[in-house]
Write a structure and sequence with these properties.
This protein is of the alpha+beta class. It folds into two domains: 141 residues, D-amino Acid Aminotransferase, Chain A, domain 1 (2-Layer Sandwich); 157 residues, D-amino Acid Aminotransferase, subunit A, domain 2 (D-amino Acid Aminotransferase, Chain A, domain 2), CATH 3.20.10.10. It is built from seven helices and 18 strands. The strands form three sheets. Strands 9, 10, 11, 12, 13, 14, 15, 16 and 17 form a nine-stranded mixed sheet that branches. Strands 4-3-8-7-5-6-18 form a seven-stranded antiparallel sheet. The longest helix has 15 residues. The protein is globular, with a radius of gyration of 20 Å. The N terminus is likely disordered. It binds 4'-deoxy-4'-aminopyridoxal-5'-phosphate. 4'-deoxy-4'-aminopyridoxal-5'-phosphate binds next to α5.
């Protein structure tokens, strides 16, 4: 990549060097990447008054459509995050769902796509917080292949950074600012030679991974922290709980998890839309988890999730919003 394709060291387009220019949706219209201009003074960047959603659209077997997974639930959570943060918008849930479909229809990719819906507070140079300003909403789409089925696993540490709490920076909200906490933990883990970090909450119980929820298998029981343990109210977590109950007849236990339970767990996996999906954790603080490979329960759950998102589980079709692809 030559210098001309970089802006401040960042690729000018996620597809620099290819013939395909991506598009985005900004406050009501699909716009070409090169015209996606936002004033540098936005308060959202200076003071992190922003929240977002990460959504995946999975290409189907014949590659003539992508299925957006649980679009309505992601839009609902974005609006809930905005409510908690007092970010205002005139867009209704149905408008934003349609925006995602419109944007995807304008993209040419016959592959898995990741979308980010971002709401941020608009222009300001003095740092005051307007009480009635409308948030800007931006939706980006980029190709991002699923990693399920690639054999990907993670080694984790327990982070010395504690997860933020509902008393100050609610983790229930998918606020951009919350990711500074995740980033601290992730970069520390990377510097120490781990793939990722599991964070404890303020009471010392397992909260979540830097961008995913945590599930533990012990003596045949599937255990995950309740949503009041300083975690995001994750859509993948809710999906897995439902799938496991309905397809495997296993009732997941939602209870606080101690750190040392991680060291003697039979299986651990992390789950989330973007980087996580269903990813086995094969060690924690260098304690090997189970056999050190993907465990049998994790494997079953991963394949249930994969079938649901790929449109291979007819019972789960209500979770999918289909968007047809153009000519290849
Ligand atoms: N926790 C955190 C901190 C996350 O960033 C994510 C990813 N959005 C998750 C959990 C999983 O949430 P979801 O399943 O809704 O993607």
């Amino acid at each position: 990549m030559d210098a001309e394709t970089l802006i401040d060291g960042i690729p000018a387009s996620p597809h620099s060097g290819t013939a395909v220019e991506p598009v985005a949706w900004l406050d009501g219209k699909v716009v070409p990447w090169s015209e996606l201009l936002i004033h540098a003074s936005v308060l959202g960047t200076a003071q992190a008054s922003a929240c977002f959603e990460g959504v995946r659209a999975y290409v189907n077997d014949s590659r003539e459509a992508v299925n957006v997974f649980r679009l309505q639930d992601h839009v609902r959570r974005l609006l809930q995050s905005m409510t908690i943060l007092r970010l205002h918008t005139a867009f209704a849930a149905a408008d934003l769902e349609l925006a995602v479909v419109e944007l995807l229809a304008a993209t040419p990719w016959h592959e898995d796509i990741y979308l980010r819906l971002l709401a941020f507070e608009g222009y300001d140079v003095v740092g005051a917080w307007p009480t009635d300003a409308r948030a800007t909403i931006l939706i980006n789409a980029v190709p991002r292949p699923s990693t399920m089925g690639t054999g990907r696993t993670k080694s984790c540490c327990v982070s010395s950074w504690r997860r933020i709490s509902d008393e100050s920076m609610p983790p229930r909200v998918k606020a951009s600012a919350n990711y500074l906490n995740s980033r601290n933990a992730y970069l520390q883990a990377a510097a120490d030679g781990y793939d990722d970090a599991i964070m404890l909450n303020q009471t010392g119980h397992v909260a979540e991974c830097t961008g995913a929820c945590v599930f533990v298998v012990r003596d045949g029981a599937l255990i995950t922290p309740p949503v009041t343990e300083s975690i995001l109210e994750s859509i993948t977590r809710a999906t897995l709980i439902q799938l496991v109950k309905e397809e495997l007849g296993v009732d997941p236990v939602q209870r606080p998890i101690d750190r040392t339970e991680l060291y003697i767990a039979d299986e651990i996996f992390v789950s989330g839309t973007g980087g996580g999906e269903v990813t086995p954790v094969t060690s924690v603080d260098r304690y090997q988890v189970g056999s050190g490979e993907i465990g049998p329960m994790t494997e079953k759950i991963q394949s249930l999730y994969r079938d649901a998102v790929r449109g291979l589980a007819p019972r789960r079709s209500e979770w999918l919003s289909r968007v047809k692809r153009g000519e290849e």
